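DATA SHEET
Item: assembly model
Revision: 1
Owner: S.N.
Input lines:
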Amino acid sequence: MQFYSNLSIKQKQIVWAWGFLALPVLFYGIIRFYPTGTAFVISFQEWNLLGDRTWIGWENYIELWNDPVFWKVFVNTFEYLLIGTPLSLVVSFIIAYHLDKLRFMHGFLRMLYFLPFMTSAVAMAWVWRWFYQDVPIGLFNNLLAAIGIPQIAFLNSTTNALPAVLAPAVWAGLGFQVIIFMAGLRAIPQSYYEAAKIDGVGWWTVLTQITIPLLRPTIVFIVVFSSIGFLRIFDHVFNMTTNNPGGPLNSTKPLVLMIYDIAFNGFNMGYAAAQTVVLFLILLLVSLAQLWLLRSD
Amino acid sequence: MTATDIRASSATLDRSAIVKPRNMGQIVRWLLLFLGGILMVMPIAYMISTSLKWPHEVYNVNLIPEEPTIENYTYVLEDGRFYWWFVNSIIIATITTISNLLFDSLVGYTLCKFRFPGRQIVFIAILSTLMIPTEMLVIPWYLMSQSMGWLDSYWGIMFPGLMTAFGTFLMKQFFESVPDDFIEAARIDGLNELQIWWTVAMPLVKPALAALAIFVFLGNWTAFLWPLIVTNSVEMYTIPVGLSGFGDEADVAWELIMTGAAISTIPTLVVFLIFQRFIIRGVVMAGLKG
């Protein structure tokens, strides 16, 4: 205590600051940084969790490069991204754009769109899985049967299964994007619109020349946020295909499911770690793209 | 009323002036958005409706059950497992939320209001962890839990999420709005730094704390991948892990799965309906500032 009271105000501040940070710094070191290093190290090893860890250099990455399942999974992951991101961006923008122009029961409509965001992915994956079942169980096929349209094989078809799994993921995320878009729209100064009105500019020109350019930071945020989400898709796929994870014939399997399967069913830790490094690099590229897009303003 | 409030309310007036009752365009727009909104909540409505149906009615497409019953809920809860999973999820989400509120705000506050050697390094180090996906860490976390004996325990499920870089930056942003003069004045009054943080700074960022609490709680309530990996006994499952296994059992009926799904979803929906305005504001704050 004698030591403390002899310190200057500035030195006391330093003591307090590091006192506050001691535990968190320890936490980030042990729970974030050390495991990150471990993941890289394991990716260069061969290890089945029970035996010894042997250093095999780039072997896991070479195996990955030559693994047709990995490439299938890689393509699937980007399919989720390339369908999911533009689709949810456009749909949520259209909803937000029109909802922003309405006052009557505005809060109620907004609630309807936002509600799915508050659900749990696992629960809703099971609900949608039930919707997709064949007659006489599934809701969608029952509705189709009622109006005399032929049945659709959703989760049993190698072509339909991926969009079918993606649908609830897009559905659950829409509300969040609508809310963010509406906040972005609100932030655009009214004076721009008033000036456009005085000049007699049409709505399409207003949309493409004022609204969308001024929404750029919002659009970049939503694209990056949803891209990262779709690249990491797991809960929906796992729960909608538990009888044959990632099936049929790996047609829905994303990278995270392959990692889970290889690490915790196959116990091939090194090979799975190499895949997590690939995932890390993909996500890093997306984040860097965001920084680059926002910086060039 | 601040300047932004005035601007917001005048914008509202402008907008309501545009809406004339006989404006057909607006009516069509409203009807389409209303239909879209009804479609959006249909999956939730069907989940709840099916959970209230008798087995013979489950595959009818009618939304309103002919004879509503809570039989499915009684059956699922009497089984006991959903009860444990629910309790587990509540405990885990609550403790994790409290931990994040305390530590994220303490770190955010320190990085925002103190000047000390190493500040920049700590800041960048925590920022850089945002780049590391959880999926990359689950294998090392699993090995760590295995060697420390944390597998299949509350601590094992919780430890990765006790602090988050996202929460830290959200809080740091909001502490920027706390005037340094307030802190200086409290220092002159003889409060120590811990007291200043807790009694002066924290009350001023309550909206941000609420936003963070919602995000952390919802995130942990619905978390799936890590709890799936770290738990292996049925009593330790969280609701999503339990529901996933329950749905996969050989002869389980769809109405019971829907009941389980409803049990895991209804609490967050109820919380949302009560605090709607507040939550939406929090989501916007966290989304744009975080």
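QC remark: Chain B has 15 helices and no strands.
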